[in-house]
Design brief:
Shape: globular
Largest sheet: 6 strands, parallel
Number of domains: 3
Number of strands: 19
Distance between the termini: 48 Å
Mean pLDDT: 91
Oligomer: single chain
Low-confidence stretches: none
Structural class: alpha/beta
CATH superfamily of the largest domain: tm_1862 like domain
CATH class of the largest domain: Alpha Beta
Radius of gyration: 22 Å
């Protein structure tokens, strides 16, 4: 049986594509290993969102090619966003790659593997907007916490973003299809369901004619007993009153809202083609905090967008201090080919971008340290994610912490007394930047 291994790069949405491809390889008779050194075929599911992600994808392709020299690896296949966007360049510049599989050809991955085993080059780029959504998966996350993609593509057309070019227009899955997958995931032991899409809050507009995320959550809640349901990537201009009420009233929809704002300056937001003004963002943050007691708010912001003045940047820093987001991420503008912003005048030099990023993250760190110190002495429900063998301590997350992007709660307990997926009560003894440290309450 031929062994196949995946290197999955980029976002959680890309990871789900990897899981679908793994399922199809398993059904086709391939053996999956999570150690590339043991595989005869190494598949890199690439990311092409920003320049650093593209370079990481290329580096991983070259690293996989090196395995041919001293490992069991005989073939290298590339899939995903970088391949979809730069197919000609990848074919020309990376001859080490024997097969290219676009984002619309996920279900051709077994055929690609069979072709390279016969010594043939293979290329498949089917219409991405005709790709069936959903499908069987081989879970690669911890078995108790999973991502569930509810839609693909994006219609927002932000001027800096290549996602619509790579992934196509918004395509929502039906509520019935999503609920069925949620029920199947629950049967495997899942206790945390993270709903994702490029723009989760826009879910259902294409097939139901209205924003339908609240309706979807109601159906998942009614048809499963999964304790934690989490929403990620909800754009502030599409957060409906119905969704806010559902988060307030539904005890299993965790009080956590991820609302990427990208900026607060109206002039920058306009050039970004963001569908929301400074006033709207402020109103949404205010409304969420007033109507959902204890809600955790996460956001992301971009610095160094073309034409961003010192006044624009200062306004963003002041807003971050004022809004006091519980969770925060930032990144620097990257000019992406075929996007309007790449051609804008007044591009900002890399050093200024990095300086602004450092200042912004330090601004947020001050906010976070105050918030985490305020939790010392509290008793918090924690979902155990695992055991840190080096530190000899358990770790997990509260409702306020999404997997992969937020901090951890480390807690002491007799080894073997807690399993991943268990909910435990932890007394917080100290805070350390973004993480908390405590001990289990017997």
């Amino acid at each position: 049986m031929t062994k196949v291994s995946f290197i999955s790069l980029g976002c959680s949405k890309n990871l789900l594509d990897t899981e679908v491809m793994l399922h199809n390889l398993h059904r086709a008779g391939f053996e999956v290993t999570f150690e590339p050194e043991e595989a005869e075929i190494v598949i890199i599911n690439t990311c092409g969102f920003i320049e650093s992600a593209k370079q990481e994808s290329i580096d991983n392709i070259l690293d996989a090619a090196e395995l041919k020299k001293w490992g069991k690896c005989k073939h290298v296949i590339a899939t995903g966003c970088l391949v979809e966007r730069y197919r000609e360049e990848v074919m020309r510049e990376l001859p080490e790659v024997e097969a290219l599989v676009g984002v619309g050809s996920l279900f051709d991955i077994a055929e690609a593997c069979e072709a390279v085993m016969r010594g043939e080059k293979y290329v498949s780029f089917k219409d991405k907007e005709s790709l069936p959504l959903g499908g069987g998966r081989v879970l690669t996350t911890a078995p108790h916490t999973v991502y569930l993609k509810i839609a693909e593509g994006c219609d927002n057309r932000c001027t800096y973003c290549a996602i619509p070019l790579i992934r196509g227009r918004l395509r929502s899955r039906t509520i019935e299809d999503i609920v069925n997958e949620a029920k199947q995931l629950e049967s495997t032991g899942v206790v945390e369901l993270n709903l994702i899409a490029q723009d989760t809050s826009r879910y259902g507009l294409d097939i139901y004619g209205e924003y339908s995320l609240a309706r979807l959550v109601k159906e998942i809640t009614a048809n499963t007993n999964i304790p934690w349901i989490r929403l990620l990537y909800c754009y502030p201009d599409k957060i409906t009153d119905e969704l806010i009420d559902e988060m307030r009233d539904n005890p299993r929809l965790v009080k956590y809202m991820d609302i990427p704002i990208q900026h607060i300056s109206d002039s920058v937001l306009t050039r970004m083609n963001r569908h929301g003004s400074k006033a709207l963002i402020r109103e949404v943050v205010k409304k969420l905090r007033e109507r959902i007691p204890g809600v955790t708010l996460r956001t992301t912001a971009m610095v160094g967008f073309p034409g961003e003045t010192e006044e624009d940047f200062t306004e963003l820093c002041e807003f971050i201090k004022e809004a006091r987001f519980d969770r925060f991420g930032a990144f620097t503008f990257s000019p992406e080919e075929d996007t309007p912003a790449a051609l804008y005048e007044d591009q900002i030099d890399e050093q200024t971008k990095q300086d602004r990023y450092d200042i912004l993250m330090q601004t947020q760190l001050t906010v976070v340290e105050e918030k985490t110190m305020g939790l010392v002495g509290a008793d918090i429900e924690v979902l155990c994610d695992g055991w840190d063998a080096a530190a000899e301590i358990y770790y997990g997350r509260s409702m306020a912490d999404a997997p992969d992007v937020d901090g951890r709660i480390y807690f002491s307990a007799p080894r073997g007394s807690v399993m991943p997926g268990d909910f435990v009560k932890v007394h917080i003894d100290e805070a350390m930047d973004y993480d908390l440290i405590g001990s289990i309450i017997a």
